[in-house]
Amino acid sequence: MKNIIGISVAILLTLLAFGCAPTKQQYQTGTWYDHSKLPPGTDTTYYPIYVPNPLYPANAVAEKVDGYAVVEVTVSIQGEVTSAKLLEEHPKGWGFGRVSLSAAPKLRYNPRIVDGKAVEMHGVLYKFTYRIQP
Questions:
Q1: What's the CA gap between 95 and 89, in Å, rounded?
Q2: pLDDT band of 29, cuts 50, 70, 90
Q3: Residue 5 above 50 pLDDT?
């Protein structure tokens, strides 16, 4: 078992070392967005192009509790989240903030372009919403 884990880690590190970033097909759960259908002139800088599906907190599922969490992220010039901070969670104590912070690094954005160059974006807000379907 340890050999299999060791080999898997070695393969993953090799892929990362050679710059093999995940492709759309490698993201199993989440949604990719095409903003080309938005009205012309719409600033899509703060619209994510990929939103992961975070795990619903088990205790909230068992009790059929809906909720949300708002995170503030920093987005790199490559469109990747480099840091995330929980700003709000409702209702508190059900784990919505925890699972949202775990999912936030998987968000992807189009980089913001200023004077023809990609720039890092600070203070980008994203709200993860959790609803149990009836």
A1: 9
A2: low
A3: no
**pLDDT reading at 46 higher than 70:** yes
pTM: 0.72
Domain covering 2-130, topology: TolA/TonB C-terminal domain (3.30.2420)
Cα 43 to Cα 5, 78, 89, 113, 120: the distances in Å are: 44, 18, 27, 11, 16
The full set of domain ranges for the chain reads 2-130
Least confident of 13-17, 51-55, 72-76, 96-100: 13-17
DSSP code per residue over the chain? -HHHHHHHHHHHHHHHHTT-PPPGGG--SEEE--GGGSPTT---TTSEEEEE-PPPPHHHHHTT--EEEEEEEEE-TTSBEEEEEEEEEESTTSSHHHHHHHHGGG-EEPPEEETTEEE-EEEEEEEEEE----
